[in-house]
Amino acid sequence: xxxxxxxxxxxxxxxxxxxxxxxxxxxxxxxxxxxxxxxxxxxxxxxxxxxxxxxxxxxxxxxxxxxxxxxxxxxxxxxxxxxxxxxxxxxxxxxxxxxxxxxxxxxxxxxxxxxxxxxxxxxxxxxxxxxxxxxxxxxxxxxxxxxxx
Length: 149
What we know:
The protein has two domains: 31 residues, no CATH class; 110 residues. The protein contains six helices and three strands, in the order βββαααααα.
């Protein structure tokens, strides 16, 4: 008796054995579910490549800042969002930064806004590529997307 396994188009594996009594082949099988297709594995690898590439781009954007500066970005972004709705709103963190740097508050808020938008665009592009990878039907499509990074 020999044992074999076949992979179906849907990615499931059917295992079976042959019996050669009287010259015929008898197939008894069992369907095993929950296994990933080769395409699913390729998609996971591509998604990892994309995430790493975009993390590298993000690191390039933020590497010029000290950790304590990065920690204040959330507060700066919050104050910028509020300022976008009402230019007269108090922005104590941005005010302190602008004063210590000797620049106008509105100039600093515009710079913060520019950075927020640039990072958001980067995030949007990453999401677009990840969504495209998830929709791929072939390894060639996946390769074309990851080679564009």
